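Title: Prediction job returns without error message
Component: structure pipeline
Severity: low
Priority: P3
Assignee: unassigned

Description:
Job completed but the reporter wants confirmation the result is attached to the right record. Sequence as submitted:
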Amino acid sequence: MPALYLIRHGQASFAAADYDQLSELGAQQSQHLGEYFGAQGVSPDTVICGGMKRHRQTAEHCLKALKLAPTAVSWLEDSDWNEYDHTGLLEAYTVLPGKADELMTDMSGENPRAGFQRHFAAAMTRWVNGGHDQDYTESWSEFCQRVARGLMAAAEGRKGNVFVFTSGGAISAVCRDLLGLSNSKTAELSWQLANAGYTKVLAGSAGIKLASINEHSHFDGRHRELLSYR
């Protein structure tokens, strides 16, 4: 029975020219996750990465801390584990009357992250509600179907531990299918997943079952300063 560890990438580079790379904190989080797995005696037999740089960088830092060379395990890249197009979501939202100005004003305030999150939540709600699919290159339902395909491919014919390095939206979509969550609850869950936290899924003769969600106790105690959600 394979155990799939769905690992959210470390913190990406918010407000940088290239968002799709780890911040300094994100690299530290990824390294600490690998150290934690090593202390627990957990290592992968297979590694699957989404096609984004932050996925690959998280995997590299984690496995280096585990003292595993990339050639020591089976590596696969599967773009089905890519995150949704957050830029496209925002573009479809900000063309609505007044929304671009509101976003710029809120991001110029004392807490730009909070300002951004408020508008991003509205943009994502519009997407998952499914009433404007023509405005997006990938609809919410298509995204969920893609992630479900990635999950089946990760589970089929494998043994041992499978580390899947992906993003919060993809992990939430898995939880949606396995727990029967509503679309709105799925969106809420995606905002609560810790960077470099993991969700564990077991695949066996009874099907695919969710064992845990958003495990991030490795950031408790003296490692609390490493905890982030954005």
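Comment from assignee: result matches the submitted record. Strands lie at 3-8, 46-49, 74-77, 161-166, 198-204, 207-215.
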